[in-house]
Write a sequence for this structure.
């Protein structure tokens, strides 16, 4: 939760050519707030993202530019989410002629092509399209520092959410070689990540672990027991088991899977976890390893139900 995170200053110089300005919007999903970055060393700078539109952000940006005796050459948006784009109206109210670049641009914005480079004194940023978190997501390679502005694909705390798991995993694989060595990751939320490639490797391993937990749950194991003993009466096969007061033969609703996999996570966070579980199930279905059953499956709850592929005695969709 945001109250448990290490405090970050509103404005912090992270390197000679990079200043972070928080968006002034801390929260459960935004962590200490959205990170925006002013990049470069000369009188013209590149701005990355615009926060959520909080008055504190535009005030801080104006003060930093005054202190640096600098102006904004161009603004680059990593993706469309409101906590990264909400400050655009305030930005344009202050500096109406500011060019705004984005992959899949909105009206009035300029297209950000894959591998396009924008440069100012002390900094050149090359965009790499990395969909998954959103379809328009892009990261920015900071050549002078062997660093990458990772948007919301890699965060300073915890793991990221995504719209398309397969695309997200492919993007993580694309991002790893963008670093020449143990370069920094400047994330969309949270503190700087000192070793970007290592964090990406952790993310990939975590996603693989979650996928295995879903498969184990479909087999009848609890996440408590993965790597240990299976739940009583399961043996790792589809069985009649009571979950949430309901008996079924190896066919699970998404929330039943969430309660099994995230048994040690507060229940208030289970709805957020459900989206990731659905993405995993859809990936497994495309790979022929999971099956989707008719909605409700006979007991009128209206929820999708899932099983391992090839479960005998039933017909999947």
């Amino acid at each position: 939760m945001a109250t448990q995170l290490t405090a970050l200053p509103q404005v912090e110089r992270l390197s000679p050519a990079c200043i972070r300005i928080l968006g002034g919007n801390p929260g459960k999903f935004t962590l200490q707030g959205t990170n925006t970055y002013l990049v470069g060393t000369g009188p013209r700078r590149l701005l990355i993202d615009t926060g959520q539109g909080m008055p504190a952000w535009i005030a801080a940006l104006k003060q930093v530019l005054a202190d640096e005796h600098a102006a904004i050459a161009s603004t680059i948006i990593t993706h469309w989410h409101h906590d990264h784009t909400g400050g655009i109206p305030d930005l344009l109210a202050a500096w109406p002629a500011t060019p705004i670049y984005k992959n899949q641009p909105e009206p009035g914005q300029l297209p950000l092509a894959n591998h396009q480079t924008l440069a100012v004194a002390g900094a050149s940023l090359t965009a790499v399209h990395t969909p998954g978190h959103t379809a328009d997501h892009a990261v920015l390679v900071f050549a002078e520092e062997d660093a990458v502005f990772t948007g919301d694909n890699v965060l300073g705390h915890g793991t990221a959410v995504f719209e398309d798991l397969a695309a997200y995993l492919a993007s993580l694989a694309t991002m790893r070689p963008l670093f020449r060595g143990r370069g920094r990751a400047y994330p969309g939320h949270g503190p700087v990540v000192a070793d970007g490639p290592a964090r990406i490797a952790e993310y990939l391993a975590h996603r693989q672990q979650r996928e295995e937990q879903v498969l184990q749950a479909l087999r009848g194991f609890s996440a408590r027991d993965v790597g240990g003993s299976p739940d009583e009466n399961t043996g790792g096969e589809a069985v009649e088991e009571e979950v949430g007061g309901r008996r079924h033969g190896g066919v699970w609703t998404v929330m039943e899977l969430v309660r099994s996999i995230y048994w040690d996570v507060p229940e208030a966070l289970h709805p957020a976890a459900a989206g990731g579980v659905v993405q995993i199930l859809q990936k497994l279905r495309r790979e022929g390893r999971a099956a989707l059953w008719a909605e409700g499956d006979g007991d009128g709850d209206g929820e999708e139900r899932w099983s391992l592929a090839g479960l005998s005695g039933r017909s999947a969709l």
Notes: Helices lie at 55-68, 82-85, 88-94, 165-175, 196-219, 254-261, 270-286. The two ends are 39 Å apart (CA to CA). Residues 2-194 form a domain with the Metallo-beta-lactamase; Chain A fold (CATH 3.60.15.10). The chain has two domains: 2-194, 211-308.
